[in-house]
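Issue 218. Parser rejects a valid record. Input:
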Amino acid sequence: MFLASIPSPDRGVWHLGPIPIRAYALCIIAGIVVAIWWGERRWAQRGGAKGTITDIAVFAVPFGLIGGRLYHVITDYQLYFGEGRDPVRALYIWDGGLGIWGAIALGGVGAWIACRRRGIPLPAVADAVAPGIVVAQAIGRLGNYFNQELYGRPTDLPWGLEIYCRTTPGYPASQCTLENPGPLDGVAVSDVPLGTVHPTFLYELLWSLGVALLIVWADRRFRLGHGRVFALYVAGYTAGRFWIEFMRTDEANEILGLRVNNWTSMLLFAGAVAYFVLARRRGPREEPAALRGKDEPGPEPGDSDDSGSPGTEDEPDRGQAGDGSADEAPAGDQRKVEPGQ
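Output the parser choked on:
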């Protein structure tokens, strides 16, 4: 077979003297950097001022980290509160545990504050950063891979994920099980896996990348605005998260037999679809002038209104794609307009 199985890393934490270097944290940071970088490019190419997304991130990122942790602690409170639990560990964000919807919700509050200060529309900002956010989520899932967490049921499929026992001086190998392979800062003591499971981190990573491609294509094709790109991202991501949640075996609270994240996915999917449909009434995408905010200069020469992937440029708007209008050459311009230009 092409694959026998996917081995897990032997550890998720390295030490430089007394300083722990955590793969989970590095993945989160890398995802944030990618989201800001790509969001900046998309914002500038739509006509907004360069540096705007970075300025907004100063508010949104801290709010998002707090919100992500709160969502995780609230929905998985049994991990931190109750008999034999240490509530202080709820603050240990470096040990993993960020709920994306708490991060989006509270991060959105931070972004709204920043947008109000600059006088720019939040929905347009959300559209600009949506592809970067979902790619950041994909990168973040690599952190779960290094942590050996959030995987699925045992499987004999050729892409199954091998789980190893990891130990520390205070955690002997005899306590390792497939459900609890050891501390996050442990080191694998054997190359014989405890078992082979569904790599749900990989399923979500690939799904997220697919959603990024979908929303970039839809934005380029239909020139979406007023938060519709972000709504499409939410709908696409939650559709995948719903079925992936059924495969996970980590401890989670349930409501009427379904995991909390299944309910969250269903509700957010319905809300996103409704918003996507209703926001169409607001008309064509926001004009570049609306994105410049208070006392911000216009776009620099060479910038274009591009909602696609990094490193590409489109023709300027000559009509709202999908509404029956066609690209036309400006008056007095005798150049031939090729089909598909």
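Fixed in the parser; the record now loads. The longest strand covers residues 13-16.
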